[in-house]
């Protein structure tokens, strides 16, 4: 069971007040929720608040990242398997939908769910039952489903990479987490709260807050802001203007150094750099870049 922790949406801007009001209302029902928004905008925080404020709060909240697994394993991880169902199945497993019975299942990066498994998930949502791999028993599963994505699922439906019927099942209550650049007035509270949480008694100066508010956080939103605060604490940095300038330089797409270098080559070089930065972890690199793992793999392939 997860360690108890307080999850909250900080900020008194109009956009954050509306978000909190929507989350509070949605928490009281058992409707499925689809949370959309850019990377680092607090989608999992919203999901946990939905659970903590709901009648299911006394039961488990189980989070599962659909991008951090393989196509062959994801169905077993979600719905369980029987002993002997496949080579490594040495014992029966109940899967996430079994262990979270009575509680909430949060499927992050739902757009990365293999289309073969989308149909299995759809059937579970329609019937309220799950079936272990290798089994025949239809097992009731009482869970509230909350899903999240930073991708455009409607566009994926049109492209044929996401099932229309599953999209309709998930898109009952839509909650959009706003990018930080749309509520910069909340940066001071978010940054100060994060700093005090990690360094008691440490405060931000007016100049430091002003530097933080000038940046647009296009790569990671609130998560990126927290990373900057962590960096300042770890390295005892006081000049936030210089720190952010260095941060921008480290993360910018490289400019073409020779006249005939194509944009595609520049993008490929940047993708490879980020992939290496995360020690070859495709999920983390794709999340940082705001692209799917499939797109990342395409850029990593040698150019023809």
Give a written overview of the molecule:
The protein is an alpha/beta fold and about 300 residues long. It folds into three domains: about 160 residues, P-loop containing nucleotide triphosphate hydrolases (Rossmann fold), CATH 3.40.50; about 70 residues, Helicase, Ruva Protein, domain 3; about 40 residues, Arc Repressor Mutant, subunit A. Helices cover about 45% and strands about 10% of the residues. It is built from 14 helices and seven strands. The strands form two sheets. It has a five-stranded parallel beta sheet. The chain has a two-stranded antiparallel ribbon with strand order 4-5. Helix 1 crosses helix 2, helix 8 packs across helix 10 and helix 12 packs across helix 13. About 0% of the residues have low confidence.
Summarize the helices and strands and which ones pair or pack.
Layout (H helix, E strand, L loop, with lengths): L13 H14 L5 E4 L6 H10 L8 E5 L5 H9 L15 H5 L4 E5 L6 H13 L1 E2 L8 E2 L3 E6 L3 H7 L4 H7 L2 E4 L10 H12 L7 H9 L6 H15 L4 H12 L11 H15 L4 H8 L3 H8 L4
Parallel strand pairs: 1-6, 1-7, 2-3, 3-6
Antiparallel strand pairs: 4-5
């Amino acid at each position: 069971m997860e360690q108890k922790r307080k999850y909250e949406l900080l900020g008194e801007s109009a956009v954050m007040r509306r978000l909190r009001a929507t989350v509070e209302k949605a928490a009281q029902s058992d409707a499925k929720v689809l949370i959309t928004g850019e990377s680092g905008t607090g989608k999992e925080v919203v999901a946990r608040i939905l659970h903590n404020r709901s009648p299911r709060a006394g039961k488990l909240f189980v989070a599962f990242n659909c991008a951090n697994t393989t196509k062959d394993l994801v169905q077993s991880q979600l719905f369980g398997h029987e002993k002997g169902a496949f080579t490594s199945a040495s014992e029966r497993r109940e899967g996430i939908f079994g262990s979270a019975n009575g509680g909430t299942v949060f499927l992050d990066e739902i757009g990365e769910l293999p289309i073969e498994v989308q149909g299995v998930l759809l059937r579970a949502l329609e019937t309220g039952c799950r079936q272990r791999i290798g089994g025949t028993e239809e097992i009731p599963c009482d869970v509230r489903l909350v899903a999240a994505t930073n991708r455009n699922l409607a566009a994926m439906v049109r492209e044929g990479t996401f099932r229309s019927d599953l999209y309709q099942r998930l898109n009952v209550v839509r909650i959009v987490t706003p990018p930080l650049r749309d509520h910069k007035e909340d940066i001071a509270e978010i940054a100060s709260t994060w700093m005090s949480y990690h360094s008691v008694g440490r405060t931000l100066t007016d100049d430091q807050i002003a530097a933080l508010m000038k940046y647009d956080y296009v790569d990671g939103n609130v998560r990126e802001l927290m990373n900057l605060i962590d960096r300042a604490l770890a390295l005892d940095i006081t000049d936030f203007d210089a720190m952010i300038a260095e941060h921008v330089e480290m993360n910018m797409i490289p400019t073409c150094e020779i006249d005939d270098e194509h944009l595609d080559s520049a993008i490929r070089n940047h993708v490879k750099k980020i992939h290496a930065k995360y020690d070859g972890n495709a999920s983390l690199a794709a999340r940082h870049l705001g692209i799917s793992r499939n797109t990342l793999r395409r850029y990593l392939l040698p150019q023809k």
